[in-house]
Design brief:
By secondary structure, the protein is largely without helices or strands. It is 6% helix and 0% strand.
Amino acid sequence: MIRTIITVKDQILRLVLPKDWIGKSIEVIAFSVNEPSLTPQLTSPGQKNITVIEVPQISYRFNRDELHER
């Protein structure tokens, strides 16, 4: 895998690939790293906190039948 960030100086980009990639299918993705992300950022206002609860494995036994009881 080759991954690099470059500064664009022209509309044309020349990409030199390894010889052993000849004949193989490759994926090329180009996007501006300064574009705003479509996914919410972890530092956004209204961020929700997740509480992690640790269960001691010695005394805990998962009961599959109890899972569907109401």
